[in-house]
Amino acid sequence: MSERADRIIAALRSGHDHLASLAGGWGAGDLTRASGAAEWDVSQVLSHLGSGAEIGLATLEGALEGTGPKDADFNKSVWARWDAMSPGERAEAFVPANEALVARYESVSNRLGFPG
Fold first, then answer.
1. Whose CA is closest to 47, among 80, 70, 71, 14?
2. Which residues is 41 bridged to in the sheet?
3. 43 located within any domain
4. What integer is the mean pLDDT of 65-69?
């Protein structure tokens, strides 16, 4: 893979690992406190990131397999599932969802030839 792609993926890994370690230590009060996003609590930010990771992974897989992106109903179903989770469930689900996306980027073959 190109040096640039490697740096980007390394930054994604570092960001994921850091946020996952923080999220693992947050209690109910931490998850329901206000976030930097005016209308979301911390768990809703994790929901946004986790659902985005699921959608991003599906998009990446579609690109790699040549099947293209999922339809809008797929995205809506992912968002609905995450919206229905409790704050604690969002924190628990964020880590594996984002891990799966980062790990998939890390596993992408060098033969894809990303530009430098």
1. 80
2. 34
3. yes
4. 93
The residue type at 97: A
Centre a 10 Å sphere on the Cβ of residue 59 and count the other Cβ atoms it contains. Answer: 16
Number of domains forming the structure of the chain: 1
Give the range of the structural domain holding residue 100, as residue numbers without chain letter. 3-108
Give the model confidence (pLDDT) of 72-84 as tens digits.
Answer: 999 999 999 999 9
Phi, psi of 41 (to 5 degrees): -85, 175
Q: Residue 75 and residue 93: Cα distance in Å, rounded?
A: 17
13-24 pLDDT, tens digit each = 999 999 999 999
CB 12 within 8 A of CB 1: no
In a domain, 7, yes or no: yes
Q: What is the DSSP letter of 36?
A: S
Summary mean pLDDT of the chain? 92
**What is the pLDDT, as a whole number, of residue 113?**
57
